[in-house]
């Protein structure tokens, strides 16, 4: 958009080793990141998706499987600047959308089990409650384990709370209680 000022201000401690511009433009569809920043970000992420950890390829250019991801969605007040952006695979980006982060964890697990498209996420949740499926919803996203400087971890603000959040939270609490009980049995 011609004439629109681009605010390049952000805490530079989130991009150590990068001293160029992050944004080249802001248009109607959002931020446009500089090639130099995208190169730095992909290298920093070791060419991995921030959510599932899958390899993204060695270059983001002409790569249909890679997208710049806003960890906290812009519609929910997320920034276009670090520490709110990272690369993700298109699958994770499309599955996350603006839903609760636990929905993405379920989608990633369903993909790994090979049941995506066979049953819905709600059916998977019900099977988890009955103990038929065992997904590790307490596992972290790849970026949460990696300590990348350009990503801030704050899961409470990742996504909007939806209708199924109560069911997901109940499942997590049940899983956490089970894990605590098992660890107490060992001790």
Termini, distance in Å?
Answer: 62 Å
Number of helical stretches of at least 4 residues: 6
Helical percent range?
A: 25-40%
* Computed CA radius of gyration, to the nearest angstrom: 18 Å
Q: Sheet with the most strands?
A: 2 strands, antiparallel
Q: How are helices and strands ordered from N to C? A: EEHEEHHHHH
Strand order, main sheet: write it out. 1-2
Counted up, domains total 1
Calculate the mean pLDDT score and round it: 81
Q: Which structural class is indicated by helix and strand composition?
A: alpha+beta
Q: Please report which band the strand proportion falls in: under 5%, 5-15%, 15-25%, 25-35%, 35-45% or over 45%.
A: 5-15%
The geometry reads as elongated
Tally of DSSP β-strands: 4
Low-confidence stretches: none
């Amino acid at each position: 958009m011609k004439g629109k000022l681009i605010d390049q201000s952000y805490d530079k401690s989130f991009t150590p080793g990068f001293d160029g511009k992050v944004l080249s433009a802001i248009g109607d569809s959002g931020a446009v990141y500089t090639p130099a920043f995208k190169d730095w970000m992909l290298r920093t992420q070791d060419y991995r998706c921030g959510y599932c950890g899958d390899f993204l390829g060695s270059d983001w250019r002409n790569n249909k499987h890679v997208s710049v991801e806003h960890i906290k969605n812009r519609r929910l007040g997320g920034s276009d600047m670090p520490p709110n952006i990272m690369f993700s695979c298109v699958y994770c980006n499309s599955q996350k959308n603006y839903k609760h982060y636990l929905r993405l964890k379920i989608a990633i697990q369903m993909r790994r089990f090979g049941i995506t498209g066979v049953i819905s996420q709600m059916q998977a949740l019900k099977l988890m409650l009955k103990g038929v499926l065992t997904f590790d919803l307490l596992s972290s996203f790849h970026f949460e384990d990696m300590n990348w400087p350009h990503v801030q971890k704050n899961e409470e603000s990742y996504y909007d709370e939806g209708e199924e959040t109560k069911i997901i939270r109940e499942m997590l609490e049940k899983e956490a209680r089970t894990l605590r009980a098992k660890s107490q049995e060992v001790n």
